[in-house]
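[Q] Does anyone have a clean structure-token version of this?
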Amino acid sequence: MTKEELIARNKKFVMRVFSALELLPSNRIYDSLVRQLVRCSSSVGANYRAACRAKSTADFINKLKIVEEEADESSYFIDLLYELEKNGKNQDSLLSLLNESNELVAIYSASVVTIKKKVKDEKNRKS
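[A] Here you go.
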């Protein structure tokens, strides 16, 4: 997947999150979870864009780890909302978002592993 495709996928994810959250009820519990999810889901794309402008490979890895963490945090809050909606009408859209956030976690996690391996391999070739 290219950088541009990931940027577009992150944007689509957060827009889907925003749309799904608009359909949820409003009370103290939901509102708290919604605020958290808005922050972490929008942070996925913002931090990925920052990673794309990293000053070094180490900086890129560190920023990509933040993207992975934010995607995982999004999964957590989506899962909580999914559990609250067990018998609600929004369960399907939340399950779809949960699957997408888990896929994003897997993508960024694998990317970090791949980049770290490349760095290690380069160091081994030089020594």
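[Q] Thanks! Anything notable?
[A] The mean pLDDT is 95.
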